[in-house]
Design goal:
46% of the residues lie in helices and 29% in strands. The chain contains 4 helices and 5 strands.
Amino acid sequence: MFYYLIYLSDSSNLTKQDAIQDILDHVADWNKELDISGFLVYRDGNFLQLLEGNKNEVLTLFNKIKRDPRHKNVTKILEDESENRIFSDYESGFLVPKNKLVRDKLNNYLLNLKLLDNPKINSTLSILENILTKMY
């Protein structure tokens, strides 16, 4: 079983644009080391992240994020378990939508996951789609 967690946070007022870019540039490497997959979206001072993998690893990372001074108002949106990873086929194991092409790939991937007709995944996808729509 894989555990997944989705959270929202605001970037702190102390967070400079280069620090945010550093997060976006290195998140795939950091999470690959922990065998955590998912995605991260940043827009207009807000982060949306889905983390999935071993429950202890995901929760340890989430607690680290909550203590990170670059984040404030960290809010867990959803957590659950699934038999399969949702984002296992991304080469880096992580997706950071930096441009329209990558965002479109993410949206297409989410649409393909709906075809699995898994109630747990579908409820997660609905929440993600609503949040992503507001972030773009």
